[in-house]
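Hi again,

Forgot to attach this to my earlier email, sorry! This is the prediction with NAP bound. I've pasted everything inline since the attachment limit keeps bouncing my files.
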Amino acid sequence: MILEGKKYAELINNETKEILKELNEKSIYPCLAVVVVGNDHASAVYVRNKKRVLDNLGISNMDVVLPENISKEELEKKLNELSNNKVVTSILLQLPLPEHLKEDTNEIMSHICSEKDVDGFTAENIGNLDLYKNVIAPCTPAGIIKMLKYENVEIDGKHVVIVGRSNIVGKPLAKLFLRENATVTICHSYTKDLRKFTSDADILIAAVGKANFITADMVKEDSIVIDVGINRVNGKLVGDVDFEHVKEKVEMITPVPGGVGKITTAMLAYNVVRYI
Ligand code: NAP
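Structure tokens for the complex follow:
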């Protein structure tokens, strides 16, 4: 079974519409500030896709475009202003930041007030994810769990193997799967004998950023494979999973493009209305 992102994005969007309607009836109008620093091409494409979904759902959003050479202090000041702006209910800081700011990303993030941190990337929200159930979770991990729930996939007691330990995908996803009572293994570039782990996974998540990295011999028969990776090869988007071969062996698999990416974008809109 191919897990088409479009189907789950629509289901998430329906939930978002319902919540938005309830908010509007109470005269509450969510508004997302989208902060973009510089003019990175890939970021521009992601932002355009995000804004298209928000516009289609009727969620107000504003662009905050800042120059590539902005200083750390100026950017932090802008984020403080947006945090104090009563019209703005959520803030998204598009990552990655330009090279001179990259190292300070976490510190810069901390200037977004946690209630408006739509991506769940601030230290407080990362901690909250450990402590509480109903909190902002990063869009990609939260969307993956939602997709599995829509499909009534049993997660309890399953061995979930996540390849990748980033702060935006691997680590928060591990927390969410733990909450669902899975047994979770996180692998990374220092993992010895990766195949030993991946081939034991009931649910395998690839979040590596290397084209066709997970091959058919690395997956278990009838397992579920979720491909988070987005890689550009000869102008074409491909995932971290060798889709054509792996799909023959497993029970469920997400495609790239048209899989997790679409779900992530829908989850952003959901987070804008859900945590207001
Ligand atoms: P990241 O921060 O670059 O992390 C990559 C992870 O992969 C790291 O933990 C790294 O290990 C691990 N890794 C690298 N080589 C490995 C190897 N040979 N064996 C095992 N693990 C290895 O990436 P990210 O931000 O999580 O993103 C991962 C991919 O997902 C990228 O392609 C990104 O574009 C995509 N993405 C997609 C969405 C979506 O909406 N679909 C959202 C976010 C990200 P170390 O920690 O040891 O370096």
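The longest strand covers residues 31-37. The pocket of NAP is lined by residues 140, 163-166, 168-170, 187-191, 194, 207-210, 228-231, 260-261, 264 (CB under 6 Å).

That should be everything now.

G.
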